[in-house]
Design brief:
Strand order of the largest sheet: 2-3-1-4-8
Radius of gyration: 17 Å
Distance between the termini: 9 Å
Bound molecules: adenosine monophosphate
Structural class: alpha/beta
Helix content: 40-55%
CATH class: Alpha Beta
Length: 218
């Protein structure tokens, strides 16, 4: 199956995507992770992307779309995938439709993760990530066993530069201006499944899995 997961920064889409990837053996394509890997590796794409990411802005569509097209052509995507953080604009969604249509394919479902603004701000400010494996933690809800050290790989656990409060405001504004309209875009296609992640991630997961079942996808 081919899925998109949509939600504001800090809504928990990465965590839900990781759960689905493992349970249903999907490729997990996080554009944010690909950009961060490029930034770390000092590639030309990374250098360009960083100038936008640090301001809480979106990386231009042309760069992002060709990066995703390239990623979707890799073999592990044949087993099905979950797109996490892409598309983020209507233009990206249209480009995705076109690149899939060329192969006679389409997206099966869009998982829309719902969380209130205030909850998001609290979660993002407490979020910490492992520099090495990307595992996500939260100082309040999911602390590491040893402060600053990843439970799974022993890497350094740090705050992302763009999780600092001044950038979070900008990212939320970007989300509402550019990405939220995608809910309507996909709702018109009748492929949205909602998951309420305000309280318990278990509730969110079971709503998503119910929706996938109802569509015969699992
Ligand atoms: P994320 O880890 O998904 O929150 O992404 C981190 C940052 O990477 C975002 O705030 C954007 O600056 C950039 N980014 C990730 N995905 C996209 C996308 N699909 N289009 C444009 N910029 C993106």
């Amino acid at each position: 199956m081919k899925l998109i997961i949509l939600g504001a920064p800090g809504s928990g889409k990465g965590t839900s995507a990781t759960y689905l990837r493992e349970k249903y053996n999907l490729a997990h394509i996080s554009t944010g992770d690909i950009f961060r890997a490029n930034i770390k590796g000092g590639t030309p794409l990374g250098v360009e992307a960083k100038s936008y990411i640090d301001k809480g802005l979106l990386v231009p569509d042309s760069l992002t779309v060709s990066m995703v097209e390239d990623r979707l052509s890799q073999d592990d995507c044949n087993k099905g995938y979950i797109l996490d953080g892409f598309p983020r604009t209507i233009a990206q969604a249209q480009a995705l439709d076109e690149m899939l249509a060329k192969k006679g394919e389409s997206i099966d479902a869009v998982l829309s993760i719902i969380v209130d603004d205030e909850t998001i701000k609290g979660r993002v400010s407490g979020r910490r990530v492992c520099e090495k494996c990307g595992e996500s933690y939260n100082v309040t809800f999911r602390p590491t066993k040893v402060e600053g050290v990843c439970d799974s790989c022993g890497g350094n656990v740090v705050q992302r530069d763009d999780d600092k409060p001044e950038t979070v405001e900008a990212r939320l504004k970007t989300y509402y201006a550019n990405t939220q309209p995608l809910i309507d875009f996909y709702d018109k296609k009748g492929i949205i499944i909602e998951g309420d992640n305000n309280k318990d991630p278990e509730i969110c997961r079971s709503q998503i899995e119910e929706g996938l079942k109802a569509r015969g996808l699992i």
